[in-house]
Amino acid sequence: MLSAVMEDYIKAIYAIGGDGEERVSTSALADYLDVTSPTVSSMLKKLEERGLVDREEYKGVTLTEEGELVALEILRHHRLLEAFLTEQLDYDWADVHDEADRLEHHVSDELTDRIAEALGNPPVDPHGDPIPDADLSLPEAGETTRLAEAGEGERVVVRRIRHQGDEELRYLADAGIRPDVEVTVVDVAPFGMVTVETPDGEQSLPEEIAQLIEVVPAAETDGLEA
To answer: Is 71 inside a domain boundary?
Structure first.
């Protein structure tokens, strides 16, 4: 049985590595988890001994096939908890991440499956992140681009907000930007600000925030709700 800390490391490697596809450095993990590099090295050795990570000196780590399955199971728990907290307990979508972090290590697969069934087996969580199904397969995702890459005058619909921290999520919630909201790009400044028109009014976003937002052209969704 894995400890909660081990699970946090596995989830972090999956997240930093672009859903498990790239090697992750010790320093990147230390920054992400707010711990020291020696602490990371010690934990990675334990995970390697359990066959959950593949580690190469000076090149970082990736998850093994077994480690990726563990990551997907943790994400299934976490994202279904976020959906449950939002839909059934009236939590704000920007405030559920920390709560789900605390609960994800303590829910059984049976409870997770019952939550999924009660919610109608949602394909995504409140942030637009895909939820692995009971077989730990991710739903097929359509192609998206980052809001920071959209051109002036483009109408786009938010599909996913990549989580970096609750502060960023609350910032976007206050700006009226969330999954399924349509925005129009008003201006892309040369110094890194992206200004968009939202249902709540005009908002200027730092480029690093706009990079967290995945969008699709509004034309792709026109008429889908008709």
So the answer is: no
Cβ atoms of 160 and 146 within 8 Å: the answer is: no
Which domain covers residue 192, as residue numbers? 145-220
Residue 201's Cβ-count burial label (10 Å; 0-12, 13-18, 19+) is exposed
Burial of 3 (C-beta count, 10 Å sphere; 0-12/13-18/19+): exposed
Task: Enter the DSSP assignment of 124.
Answer: B
Q: What is the CATH number of the domain that holds 21?
A: 1.10.10.10
Give this prediction's pTM: 0.87
Q: Are 63 and 24 in contact (CB under 8 A)?
A: no
N-to-C CA span, the chain: 49
pLDDT tens digits, one per residue of 49-92: 999 999 988 889 999 999 999 999 999 999 999 999 999 999 99
Whether residue 67 contacts residue 53, with contact meaning beta carbons closer than 8 Å, is answered with: yes
Domains contained in the chain, number? 2
Q: Give just the sign of the alpha carbon dihedral 117, 164, 154, 199.
A: positive
